[in-house]
Write a structure and sequence with these properties.
By secondary structure, the chain is an alpha+beta fold. Strands 1-2-3-4 form a 4-stranded antiparallel sheet. 25% of the residues are buried. Bound molecules: zinc ion.
């Protein structure tokens, strides 16, 4: 299928700030995090303070790898203090990377305007706060998504109002294909024109999710 050139441009945009800028940005708020930069990848390691209403309530040792595609590519984070059990039920992949959010929802947590600092203060702080809360109470304070395919299906059912996996896949293909026209028949199979059916859902997500995010979602949804 033809790719939207806008999507490709977005995926390859190099937004990673220079390490000096990052250092300056985070030094004051995260004095125990240290930054190194190698081959364009920025690695931030150290003791991360978890805040609730601006009060530090806990600490975790972390290693954060900020990739060239940031913020369109989410950083890879590991908890290196051996505290969070490496299990999908704790939202940690077996390889040790933390699962902060579903890649298809990355744009909500890491919008175009996101900086390293807003990432640390927002999604990473929220995730680690949730882990502390889970240790204490055995449940998640902000709810949770299912793992793997279940998480994708859940999210797409929320967006589309149907849990039909074939509709979900056709929707994803519509996100990366040609600009949809209102007079096309809707991908959902309603036999209505797009403009009277799901066109608004397509428009709302086009340009927010990258071609890579769409591709891996389709892969996961079509795998047995
Ligand atoms: Zn429809």
């Amino acid at each position: 299928m033809e790719q939207d050139p806008g999507l490709n441009k977005m995926s390859f945009r190099q937004q990673i700030p220079k390490s000096d800028e990052i250092r300056q940005l985070i030094h004051e708020r995260y004095p125990e995090l240290f930054i190194t930069q190698d081959s364009g990848v920025c690695v931030i390691t150290g003791r991360f303070p978890v805040r609730a209403d601006e009060i530090v309530v806990d600490h975790y040792f972390v290693e954060i790898c900020v990739l060239k595609g940031f913020p369109f590519e989410a950083p890879l984070v590991r908890e290196i203090g051996g505290r969070i059990h490496r299990h999908v039920d704790r939202h940690v992949f077996l390889c040790g990377f933390l699962c902060l959010f579903l890649p298809l929802e990355r744009w909500k947590h890491l919008p175009e305007t996101a900086t390293i600092l807003t990432y640390l203060d927002g999604p990473l702080n929220d995730y680690l706060f949730s882990q502390t809360y889970f240790e204490e109470y055995g449940c998640w304070p902000f709810g949770e998504r299912g793992h793997g395919k279940a998480g994708y299906r859940e999210y797409l059912a929320e967006v589309l109002g149907t849990d039909d996996p074939n509709v979900a896949i056709r929707f994803l293909e519509c996100l990366k294909g040609r600009d949809p026209k209102g007079h096309w028949l809707c991908f959902c199979g309603s036999e209505k024109k797009m403009r009277n059916c799901h066109l608004d859902k397509v428009i709302a997500l086009r340009g927010k999710v990258t071609a890579e995010e769409i591709g891996s979602a389709i892969d996961i949804l079509t795998k047995d």
